[in-house]
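[job 4471] stage=fold_predict status=RUNNING
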Amino acid sequence: MSAVFGNLSFNTSWNNCAISVELYYIFATVWGREHYTLYGILLCVFAILLSVGACISVALTYFLLSGEDYRWWWRSVLSTGSTGLFIFVYSVFYYRNRSSMSGLVQSAEFFGYSLLTALVFSLMLSTVSFWASLAFIRYIYRSLKMD
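[job 4471] inference complete, writing structure tokens
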């Protein structure tokens, strides 16, 4: 269930298209001979990714608490942390369909760096997700009145 919520931002057609296009340009810049010139748009997409991840985590935490399931910690971490899996799957797609890489050394370097990138994104989004859920939990329990 957490993986579904984590990839919720990629399931809509516009978000999927925007993130896939940005990933294509980034991969083409790093592994190809193209130059990336849209740094402002990349910054906006990155900010949108962080805010959507935080909102999805808060929504998942709310749904869990509404269902009287109070084990929200790891689910908040995995809710957007699974986005790293999407990035790694896209790197496999890029390697197979878009690049002309061959050989063991190029493949090992490509998949090694792709795995590290996916891990960094997973940890970064998991951290944002956890802190957003924790802030939400503290906010709702601070305003809770016991009679």
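[job 4471] summary: The two ends are 35 Å apart (CA to CA).
[job 4471] exit 0
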